Amino acid sequence: MNSILTKFNWFGLAGGATTILLIVVSLVSPWWQLTVGDDLVKVAASPVNMNMGFLGTSFTIPFIWALNMVSILTLLASGIAMLVYSVIPRKSYSKHLLGFGYKKPLFTVLFFVIGLVATTMICQAILNFNVPLMGSTTSTLPIPFVSGITLTVLLSAGFQWTFGLAIVAAGLCIAARLYHGKVAAVPSV
Asked: Of 73, 149, 161, 183, which has the maximum CB count within 10 A?
């Protein structure tokens, strides 16, 4: 029984599978969502898919689409590397697979959060427009070219369940790295 438990890296197996599952669900469900007014502006963001809409019309920015494709490929390679490593953790190349795969979900989560925080700070500094990361607020927008008229809108934002799944995937991949010493050790006879 003990040999079965130490033959595979179960954390890596779970982390790789969760990373691939994360890609699939993130294509249809965002990590973070912002709604301005009554669907005046809608932003559904994740590293693998970003949907933006204005007055009910959705649009895509080609540069962001390209970044989404890079993120999909990186996470997919990470998930596959973690799965391959997990079933053969004692091979000579397994540590390289683990080294490649375990960091990508963590970096994806960190860069996503840093990007969101930076975007909200830029909106506040340059546009004088307060965008919440979580929760609801009302903001007053000055309308350019019309003196004295302002528009007050409700902004609602929040992280979705897929962001929690991303954190779980990152945690499992880190746990796989920490558990590597137990499964990679040569068993004593």
From this structure: 183
Q: How far is CA 4 from CA 7, 8, 9, 168, 184, in A?
A: 5, 7, 10, 24, 13
* Crossing angle of the two packed helices 10-26 and 94-101, in degrees rounded to 10: 40
Torsion of CA 139, 144, 150, 151, to 10 degrees: -50
CA distances (Å), 176 to each of 58, 81, 170, in order? 40, 12, 10
Tell me the average pLDDT across 124-153.
76
CA distances for 188 relative to 3, 45, 92, 185, angstroms: 11, 50, 18, 9
pLDDT at 102 over 90: no
CB 31 within 8 A of CB 46: yes
Helix (H, G, I), strand (E, B) or coil at 53: strand
- For 88, phi then psi, to 5°, come to -135, 60
Tokens of 50: 């970003």
What b/e readout covers 143-157, taking b as 16+ CB neighbours within 10 angstroms? Answer: eeeeeeeeeebebeb
Query: 75, 68 in Cβ contact below 8 A?
Result: no
Read off the tokens for 74. Answer: 């990186």
Instruction: Give the predicted TM-score (pTM) of the model.
Output: 0.84
Record the tokens describing residue 111, joined without a space. 């860069």
> One-letter amino acid identity for 68?
N
